[in-house]
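Quick review question:
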């Protein structure tokens, strides 16, 4: 039974790790029509290092889940492929995260 609960927590942790980073950070007052700023080359390099470290740690966590038998290698490979694609998109956009407006979503929770 203890192993079952440990597996549940491990899966919950994996889900949290994967889903929290996927959406990026969105400013509440950011309008979707505003022009996104460009970062300097030094700023991009600094962010590149930080993102690479973050993705390397995530990949390490995913590898541990495979080692512990929580997820299958094929699933881990897909997750890692998604992380690599996310990094490539960040790189292509100069490490400026896109602020997507989710029309109607959470409108009842945000005071206008």
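Suggested answer, residue by residue:
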């Amino acid at each position: 039974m203890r192993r079952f609960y440990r597996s549940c927590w491990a899966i919950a942790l994996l889900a949290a790790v994967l889903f929290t980073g996927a959406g990026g950070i969105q400013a509440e007052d950011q309008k979707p029509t505003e022009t996104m700023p460009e970062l300097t080359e030094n700023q991009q390099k600094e962010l590149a290092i930080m993102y690479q470290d973050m993705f390397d740690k995530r990949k390490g966590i995913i590898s541990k889940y495979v080692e512990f038998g929580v997820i299958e290698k094929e699933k881990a490979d897909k997750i890692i492929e998604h992380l690599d694609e996310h990094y490539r998109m960040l790189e292509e956009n100069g490490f400026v995260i896109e602020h997507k407006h989710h029309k109607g979503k959470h409108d009842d929770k945000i005071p206008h």
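Why it works: The chain has a mean pLDDT of 77. The chain has three helices and no strands.
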